[in-house]
Amino acid sequence: MVSAQGSSIRDEGPPDGAPRLFERANALALQFAARAAQHDRDASFPFENFAELSEAGLLALTVPAALGGAGAGALDAARIINIFGKADPSTALVLSMHYIQHLVMARSSRWPARLARKLARETVEGVALINALRVEPDLGSPSRGGLPETIARRTETGWRLSGRKIYSTGAPILKWYAVWARTDEPELRVGLFLVPAGLPGTRIVETWDHLGLRASGSHDVLFDDVVFPLDHEIDVRKPEDWQVVDFTQATVHAIFIAAIYDGVARAARDWLIGFLRQRVPSNLGASLATLPRVQEVVGAIEARLAVNARLIESFAGDFDDGCSLTAAESNIIKLVVTNNAVAVVEHALALTSNHGLSRANPLERHYRDVLCGRVHTPQDDATRIQVGRLALGL
């Protein structure tokens, strides 16, 4: 743990072979935070942030060291994501999705080694981001079940892909899409195909006009008979073979989502502390920080953030250490941390009244952003049902 004004994740140092990455991240975070309000207001994508992340070597954080990256695991990646979640959660979300894909590549026997090496090399050398495009207008999230309407048709010269993906985070900057689709084969299969961005027939429709994370570029991506190589099939199986989710994907996704929204809550807490110290009502003759009721609420905020820090750190560390973990545990971490984060910002709003809701102050933006934590898979109801069924032996 660190001081009230510090990060939520312990700072012993960077991964081996990547000195000063955390110092670089903290320096960049100051710049990202200074630009975040304008990007939020304009719903503009922060391209400059990713150019700077690349120059600092941070896009390749979870690329294996043998392939030129920093070789970071879940804990160090969560620390970096938390830093940027506090500064600009839209940037942190795009970055976290990219980190997840490279961790999965490094650990999965299903990812074609040649493609994993190619994407690793591109990430080390420049701005080459990847994200998985899964959600569809009718399907919703695949985590709820159902087959995608996006279809990959096999031909002699390549796959031909048609469909529409929504909430495609980072769409304006992605170089690669890992697209969730089904085949038109007699024995249907479903899974991921690696599709280069910008191919003929690909179109980004700028639909993202959201309450929170407005700079994440989570637009729709349309595929109209897009042709890509046959050997870009990543992991395509019979539908029933997907009943068990990818452990690495699910676990690090939960950790990173938790780290983002904990960062948002910490940004709200820091602004609140400054406000309470500086606000001196004439009838009180002292700062709001001197009131016992205010101190009690701030104490409740600190308690929630302390729990978040311990949950994220211990769970990410256990993952890196190869401890036996379950999907239910990772989902609980995500549920508890994100709801604690929402509660922190709500506490801050309750103490600051109209000041907190004014667009002149960042707290209203933090509130809009932190509410997005509940939207990410798995949603709270799904986690509670899963855990409840386990407890009941069903």
Can you walk me through this structure?
- The protein is an alpha+beta fold and 394 residues long.
- The protein has 3 domains: 21-127, Orthogonal Bundle (Butyryl-Coa Dehydrogenase, subunit A, domain 1); 132-242, Butyryl-CoA Dehydrogenase, subunit A, domain 2; 247-392, Butyryl-CoA Dehydrogenase, subunit A, domain 3 (Up-down Bundle), CATH 1.20.140.
- It is built from 11 helices and 8 strands.
- Strands 1, 2, 3, 4, 5, 6, 7 and 8 form an 8-stranded mixed beta sheet that branches.
- A hairpin with a 6-residue loop joins strand 4 (174-183) and strand 5 (190-196).
- Helix 6 (247-278) runs antiparallel to helix 10 (363-370) and helix 8 (327-352) packs antiparallel against helix 10 (363-370).
- The radius of gyration is 21 Å and the shape is globular.
- The chain starts with 20 loop residues before the first helix and ends with a helix.
- The relative contact order is 0.12.
- Mean pLDDT is 92; it is low at 1-15.
Identify the CATH homologous superfamily of the largest domain: Butyryl-CoA Dehydrogenase, subunit A, domain 3
CATH topology of the largest domain: Butyryl-CoA Dehydrogenase, subunit A, domain 3
Give the class from helix and strand content and strand pairing.
Answer: alpha+beta
Per CATH, the architecture of the largest domain is: Up-down Bundle
Number of strands: 8
Distance between the termini: 39 Å
Radius of gyration: 21 Å
> What is the share of helical residues?
40-55%
**H/E order of the elements?**
HHHHHEEEEEEEEHHHHHH
Strand residues, percent: 5-15%
Shape: globular
Instruction: Please count the helical segments.
Output: 11
Counting structural domains, the number is 3
Note poorly predicted spans. 1-15
Mean pLDDT, nearest integer? Answer: 92
Biggest sheet descriptor: 8 strands, mixed
What top-tier CATH class of the largest domain fits best? Mainly Alpha
